[in-house]
């Protein structure tokens, strides 16, 4: 399927690895001019080379921290008038909520709620004026099924979800869609970090915990980032113009609810 995206422009945050890189890769394959953002130069340049090798489309790179105004200004100036915005940020650390101080919560809010909202604010009016826009926020399955050890993520990502629910309906008539993608257990560094923390907290080996989590999923496996990237690309497509304000789980069937 031709997604109708060739020649469009995209900003993809936290795109040097994991799910962000997978989204950038999928969009580049569709002929999108991609700007990828990360905080570490070495992994950012490595991701750009990998994307170019796989797609023939070399992304622009921005070394920036999305939680700072200077970082967001650099992102928007490098990728002006984007048609697509993929908001993504490394999740806050796991742990018992009793151990978190106010500064921990502020950092989590900055990264997983306030920075995405600021980037949306900087880009959405141009999308409305041009009558095309796709905003995808990568959040977490914990928005639908909170995990006790992910208290920072549960709270801050749910705040972003509530904001999006109101925003999406206000711009839909202009062919601008805003959706959230909720990943489950994908084979990424973030998952491995969470599994290591779970192992420590339960005094078990990482291998034991990993196998237990894998076996608990109905698919009996972890997701592959490429699967996530393909779904993201479709949500950005011309064909997805009637999908907006949704929280789309990609979790192998782990969420047990009907709705």
From TrEMBL:
Alphabetized SUPFAM superfamilies for the sequence: NAD(P)-binding Rossmann-fold domains
Transmembrane segments: none
Stored InterPro entries: NAD(P)-bd_dom_sf, SDR, SDR_fam
Similarity comment: Belongs to the short-chain dehydrogenases/reductases (SDR) family.
PANTHER family reported in the protein's UniProt record: 3-OXOACYL-(ACYL-CARRIER-PROTEIN) REDUCTASE, NADPH-DEPENDENT REDUCTASE BACG
Protein name: SDR family NAD(P)-dependent oxidoreductase
Lineage, uppermost ranks: Bacteria, Pseudomonadati, Pseudomonadota, Alphaproteobacteria, Hyphomicrobiales
């Amino acid at each position: 399927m031709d997604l109708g995206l060739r020649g469009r422009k995209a900003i993809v945050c936290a795109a040097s690895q994991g799910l962000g890189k997978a989204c950038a890769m999928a969009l580049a394959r569709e002929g999108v001019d991609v700007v990828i953002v990360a905080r570490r130069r070495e992994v950012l340049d490595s991701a750009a080379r990998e994307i170019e090798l796989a797609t023939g489309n070399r992304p622009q790179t921005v070394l920036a921290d999305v939680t700072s105004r200077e970082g967001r200004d650099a992102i928007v100036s490098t990728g002006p008038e984007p048609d697509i915005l993929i908001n993504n940020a490394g999740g806050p650390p796991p742990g018992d909520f009793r151990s978190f101080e106010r500064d921990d919560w502020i950092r989590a809010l900055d990264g997983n709620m306030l920075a995405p909202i600021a980037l949306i604010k900087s880009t959405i009016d141009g999308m409305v004026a041009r009558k095309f826009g796709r905003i995808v926020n990568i959040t977490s399955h914990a928005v639908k099924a909170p995990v006790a050890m992910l208290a920072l993520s549960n709270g801050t990502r749910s705040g972003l979800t509530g904001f999006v629910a109101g925003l999406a309906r206000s711009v839909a008539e202009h062919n601008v869609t805003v959706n959230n993608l909720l990943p489950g257990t994908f084979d990424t560094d973030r998952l491995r970090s969470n599994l290591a923390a779970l192992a420590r907290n339960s005094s078990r080996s990482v291998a034991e915990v990993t196998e237990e989590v894998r076996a608990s999923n109905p698919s009996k496996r972890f997701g592959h980032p490429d699967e996530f990237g393909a779904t993201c690309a479709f949500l950005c497509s011309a064909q997805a113009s009637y999908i907006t304000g949704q929280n789309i789980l990609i979790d192998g069937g782990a969420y047990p609810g009907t709705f």
